[in-house]
Design brief:
By secondary structure, the protein is α+β, with helices and mostly antiparallel strands. The protein has four helices and three strands. The radius of gyration is 15 Å and the shape is globular.
């Protein structure tokens, strides 16, 4: 029986996929916007939304959970101290995807992933 794919792995192992997604989330938090392909952006969005929920809680346990997930102290500090206070009134939907065209080399659809 054919099983459907739950997510993309970008031609690598599952571990490589997870590291790629976490690194892209750290880059998004650090720079507040990144340019990437559509598929990768759609994979990063749920992780960033979960980290924002932790940051809005703001307690020590949430900070430790975010640090365990992202493995970057500077990104977690920026998320908790600068980014999360801007979204206190918002319940969800912290990021947006803006389509910016196609990549020259392989015609992959490129998007800009940024905080709202």
């Amino acid at each position: 029986m054919v099983k459907t794919k739950k997510s993309y792995h970008f031609g690598g192992s599952v571990a490589h996929h997870n590291l790629l997604i976490k690194n892209m989330a750290v880059s998004l938090i650090t720079h507040e916007k990144i340019k990437t392909t559509t598929v990768r952006a759609k994979q990063v969005q749920p992780l960033v939304d979960r980290m924002m929920r932790f940051a809005k809680q703001g307690d020590l346990n949430a900070r430790r959970l975010a640090l365990a997930e992202l493995n970057n102290e500077q990104a977690v500090h920026k998320l908790f101290s600068e980014i999360a206070p801007r979204y206190e009134s918002r319940n969800s939907g912290y990021t947006r995807i803006i389509r910016i065209g196609f990549r020259q080399g392989d015609s992959a659809e490129m998007v800009q992933l940024e905080f709202v």
